[in-house]
Structures are given as structure tokens and as C-alpha cells.
Amino acid sequence: MIANSTISQCVKGDQQAYSLLYCTCAPYIFTIIKNYFTPEDDRKDAMQEVFAQIFLSIQNFDEAKGSFKSWISKITVYQCIAILRKKDKLQISYHLEVVEEENYDTLESLEKLSVSDLEKMLVDMPLGYKTIFLLSVIDEYSHKEIGELLGISPETSRSQLFRAIKWIKSNIINDINIMRYGILQ
User: How far separated are the first and last CA of the chain, in Å rounded?
Assistant: First the structure.
């Protein structure tokens, strides 16, 4: 994604290296951000916050602990969550319910969706469900990690993911909404 020499130059404060890092990484970071935020202004704010955090903490990047791509991905997700909290948009329902194993047909149907189909679906999904869905299914965080990140229990995270999948089943994966979203099976 980005050369180690560019990262080293950023640590030294080289403005051209910062510019190169931004131009190289911005499309990848924007892909993550657009899943968490729909309004364009929120996306722009998030981009600024994420890059500010990357630039302020680039000296902490340690290649021995993982790739630069995974490091900036983690920063991006954490910043998105922080912004949602700051704007008081992160509403997680805390009542627990018995969570059964989800029908694999739903998960298989999700795997058939293209990236653009998934993005269309995420626009309408309630934010609490969407956040847990993104963290669990897309960004592959465990329920324990999600709980720590959001200040909820792993059980609440599982419950929210279950509800997100139920929402997908009732709002997306049926004939009427397949036509609405333009999703082909």
C-alpha cells in the first residue's frame, strides 16, 4: 500500500511524504468511512479526523505488529466510532434476547451481494445495527472486541448482530426489496 520509506519520511515531518500517504490511502479509508456515514459532510469530517489521527500517531506504527493497511483500518474504524459517539448518533439497544444460530440462507444471500448492493443496503439500516454489522461481518471484530470498543457486553453485540441480520431478512432479502434495491439474486 505505502512504502516504508514514505512512512519514515512522515515520521520526520516531510510534507511531501504526508501528501503521498494521503493520496495513496484516501480511497481505501474513504471506502471504510462511507459505510459508517451517509451524509457527505459527515464523511468529509471523518476523513479529516482519521488523517489527523494517522499523522499524529504515525511514529507509533510498528511493522512487526502488522501491516500499515491494517493499522490505518483500525484507526479509521476507531475514529468513526468516536465521531458517532461525539455526535450522539450511536444508539445501541440494550435489552437482551435469546439469540439462536442464524439461518445460513441469510448469510449465503449476503455473500452473493456485490459491494454496491451491500452499500445500498447499509444506507437504510438503523445505525446501531449497521455499526455492529460492519464491525462484526465486514471488519471482522469479535463480539468481545466490539463490546470493548463500544462499551457494551459481548452478548449485546451478538444480539445487535442478530437483529441486523433479521432486519436484512425482512427488509432486503425478499422479492419486493430486491426490486427496490436493484439487487439480483
Answer: 34
